[in-house]
């Protein structure tokens, strides 16, 4: 899924090596779909949405495309991007690290990052929030997942470290990037979401 800033690390943060296992596991779970769909209803019909760390597109990208949104995906795992492109040939997808991505060189009505932000070092998380904020149209929304409490843990699939900066830090980063924290909520899998709007 996500992307590491240094050249000596795997830009997919281990997800290329476990792509098959990730697709098998995620493909059997609809956790988060209803939550993301409800969030997307706050956007205009057929709005443009950037899916950061889109993986193979199942189930989140698939739901948004089914609902008629103009979705663009970015992921650093070649295997996951290839699967996405096969499944959704009309949806633009880029195989690149989000830290280095041009984000398609355009603005979006919304951006989502489910299961991505906390896989990055703290400084990379802050930089990503700032860059995505600049790629949002006025009034555009950013939705991402991370635990509300500051904590670290080990990713189940890759064994790599994950880190949440905590709700207070995320709120400050969003504000500094010109985004207003609109809401926080959880899905049926107890994943915590931060929903923000560009001022």
Commentary on this structure:
It is built from 6 helices and 9 strands. By secondary structure, the chain is an alpha/beta fold. The chain has a single domain (19-198), classed as 3-Layer(aba) Sandwich (Rossmann fold), CATH 3.40.50. It has a 7-stranded mixed sheet with strand order 3-2-1-4-5-9-8, with helices on both faces. It has a two-stranded antiparallel ribbon with strand order 6-7. Helix 4 links the parallel strand 2 (70-75) and strand 3 (93-95). Residues 1-7 have low confidence and may be disordered.
Would you report the number of β strands? Answer: 9
> How many angstroms does the end-to-end distance come to?
28 Å
The CATH class designation is: Alpha Beta
The parts where pLDDT drops under 50 for at least 5 residues are: 1-7
Number of helices: 6
Assembly form of the protein: single chain
> What's the shape?
globular
| Percent helix range | 25-40%
Task: Provide the number of structural domains.
Answer: 1
CATH superfamily: Vaccinia Virus protein VP39
Q: What portion of the residues fall into strands of 2 or more residues?
A: 25-35%
Biggest sheet, in brief? Answer: 7 strands, mixed
Lateral strand order in the biggest sheet:
3-2-1-4-5-9-8
**Global structural class:** alpha/beta
């Amino acid at each position: 899924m996500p992307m590491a800033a240094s050249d000596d690390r795997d830009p997919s943060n281990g997800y290329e090596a476990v792509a098959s296992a990730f697709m098998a596991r995620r493909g059997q779970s609809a956790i988060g779909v209803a939550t993301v769909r409800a969030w997307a209803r706050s956007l205009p019909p057929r709005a443009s949405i950037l899916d950061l760390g889109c993986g193979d597109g199942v189930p989140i990208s698939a739901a948004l495309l089914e609902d008629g949104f103009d979705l663009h995906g970015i992921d650093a795992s070649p295997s996951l991007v290839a699967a996405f492109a096969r499944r959704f040939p009309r949806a633009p997808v880029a195989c690149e690290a989000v830290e280095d991505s041009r984000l398609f060189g355009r603005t979006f009505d919304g951006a989502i990052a489910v299961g991505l932000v906390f896989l990055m070092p703290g400084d990379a998380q802050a930089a990503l929030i700032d860059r995505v904020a600049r790629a949002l149209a006025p009034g555009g929304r950013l939705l991402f997942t991370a635990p509300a409490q500051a904590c670290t843990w080990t990713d189940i699939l890759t064994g790599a470290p994950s880190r949440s900066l905590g709700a207070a830090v995320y709120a400050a980063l969003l504000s500094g990037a010109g985004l207003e924290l609109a809401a926080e909520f959880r899905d049926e899998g107890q994943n915590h979401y931060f929903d923000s709007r560009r001022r």
